[in-house]
Amino acid sequence: MVISLPSLSGQYQGTYISNADSSTYLNINKDIIEIYQVEDYFRVEDILERSLILKSEYDIVSDTIFLTRNNARIYFLILNEEILQLKGDLKHFISCNTMFYCTRKKDANGEIVYFGKWKNGKKDGVWLYISQTGIRIKVTYEKGVVLDRTVLD
User: Quick one: which of 39, 11, 7 has its CA closest to 25?
Assistant: First the structure.
C-alpha cells in the first residue's frame, strides 16, 4: 500500500524551534504568533516554564509572514513549509536571520499532522505523520535521509 505523507501547502500552523540554541520557539495558530523563550527544550508539551517574548496577529503575503501589532520591523521569510527565517531583531532574545524549523505541524482545524526533531538543519530521528484519513506513518531520518518508513496500524 502506498501512502503519501501529508502536505499542507500554504499553511504554517504549528510549532517551530530556533536553530540558534533551541531555547526559543514559535507557536503559530490560526490568527496569532507567539514567541517563547524556555530554559530547556525537549518537547513542547513538556515545557513547564516558558516566557512569552511576543504575541501578535499576522498576515501572510507571498513568501513573508508579517506581524501586525506594533512590530512592523519584525517579519519571517517563508523558505518552505517547514523552515522560517526571522528578519529583524527581538532585542536580547533572537537575532536577525535566525532560522526556525517546524517540529509539529497542524492542519486548518488545529489537528496535528506531523511532528519530530531537527538536528543541524535536517530532520533527524523518528517522525510521525498522520494522514487526513487517520493513517499513521513512522519515518526514521538520519541527517535528513529517510532510513525507514513504516505504516502503523
Answer: 39
Secondary structure letter of residue 57 according to DSSP: E
Confidence of residue 71 (pLDDT cuts 50, 70, 90): low
pTM of the complete model beyond 0.85 = no
Q: Cell triple for residue 114?
A: 506531523
- With left for phi above 0 and alpha for psi between -120 and 50, is residue 19 left, alpha or beta? alpha
User: What count of Cα atoms within 13 Å lies in the side-chain half-sphere of residue 48?
Assistant: 0
User: Which pLDDT score is estimated for 150?
Assistant: 92
Dump the DSSP string for 59-128. EEETTEEEE-SS-TT-EEEEEETTEEEEES-BTTTB-TT-EEEEEEEE-TTS-EEEEEEEETTEEEEEEE
Q: Give 1's DSSP letter.
A: -
Element (H, E) at 140: strand 136-142
The H or E element that residue 150 is part of is strand 145-152
Query: Which residues share a beta bridge with 42?
Result: none
- Band (27; pLDDT cuts 50, 70, 90): confident
> Residue 57 and residue 131: Cα distance in Å, rounded?
29
Grid coordinates representing 9? 501547502
